Amino acid sequence: MELEGKVAIVTGASRGIGEAIARAMAAAGARLMLVARKPDALAEVIGSIHADGGVVRGRPAHTGKPADLDVLFAETLAAYGQIDIVVNNAATNVHFGPMVTAEASQWDKNLEVNLKGYFETSRRLVAHLTERGAPGAIVNVASVAGLGGSPLQGVYAATKAAVISMTQTLAVELGPAGIRVNAIAPGLIRTRFSSALVESPDISGRIVSRTPLGRVGEPQEIAGAAVFLASDAASFVTGHTLVVDGGLMVSAL
Description:
The chain has about 250 residues and is α/β, with parallel strands linked by helices. The chain has one domain: 3-Layer(aba) Sandwich (Rossmann fold), CATH 3.40.50.720. It contains eight helices and seven strands; from the N terminus they run βαβαβαβαβαβαααβ. α4 links the parallel β4 and β5. α3 packs parallel to α4 (about 105-130) and α4 (about 105-130) packs parallel to α5. The mean pLDDT is about 95.
């Protein structure tokens, strides 16, 4: 569970799960390049990790825009000389309601960030690792929403199901090169992103009632899974989706 000597890019790192993963990876010894769209929030996280002794830089970027990713990878390589890990966490959900009411533009936005962004970031890491002849790790933050029916979040859930499928295919294709690809499927986690669910007594109550651990999760409870999957402790793990949901998906209630 150590990341000494590794360089990791973490997207969506200015708050919530991404911030928690960044802090845990810094504590595990990784050198970091953090990515988010909001410069002020990103700078605050970078400053805090740096004050705790972490080696960290940041780059405001939109992961759904390939040109931003080109600059991101160039700056990371200029700063550290290598990249070993990508954590794809940046996500959006621009439609909350019945799936059949989603507009085409809402589909496009969700796909741009939640799926194409993950793919384009991963593709750039693979090109770099192939050039170096080095192994590496990709960790995709998916969701339990992608593992079953997800009322009111159908478009978001469809992108997360696609992320899980992409994770499995890339694991098969990239395994011979020593590049491991895994996903994490969080349950209901207390973040600003999930506030519409957490702050709804009806929705959160139903979810918590079906969760054996009987509560909502916290961002730091996802971070350990990301460190594990990125580290040599998971050297024989690829193509796996690690569900971190308090038991929600196995509950028969």
